[in-house]
Amino acid sequence: MLIQTKAQYYSSVGTIYCKPGCYTAFLGRHTWQLTHAPREASGDCMLSHADLETIFSPDWSWREEEGKLFIIVNDLEIQIGDKESLVSVRSKDKPETCQKDMKTPAGRFDGEWFLPMKGFFKEVLGNHFAYSDPYYMISDTLEEIDRKKAWLYMDIILSGRKTYGDFYETFWYEETQRIV
User: What pTM value is reported for the model?
Assistant: First the structure.
């Protein structure tokens, strides 16, 4: 069996590719169905926090207090306000807080928090970001994103032109609380 126990299997997201208005996102070369369609805002793609929480589960934790969203990623606690682009970032190792500008404000739409891909991942977390119309791409690895190669693969799948070969899909594995 591929997955034996919670501790023995780990999947890495690698690169996330998404397109505003499209419920299908790519985690590397694997498709994942989002619960909320990404939105475009101020030249950035807004992803729902609920989808990001699922994608990065169980490595992210969060809470909401007094209208603000608190996300704990690695050793960072990030405080995000509704309709604000300036976020507070505090490391567990250091008591002082620094401010980072996402350029595009995070916000609530229909009761759900949405975060800007470029603003949150590149400006706040320091990940790689790329854009190739109409796809937004972020990477949680140290590798640069190959926009042309990625765009061609996604476009063929989403346009329905792929009629043979392997289709790679992901699924939620309850025992590990991860997408696999």
Answer: 0.80
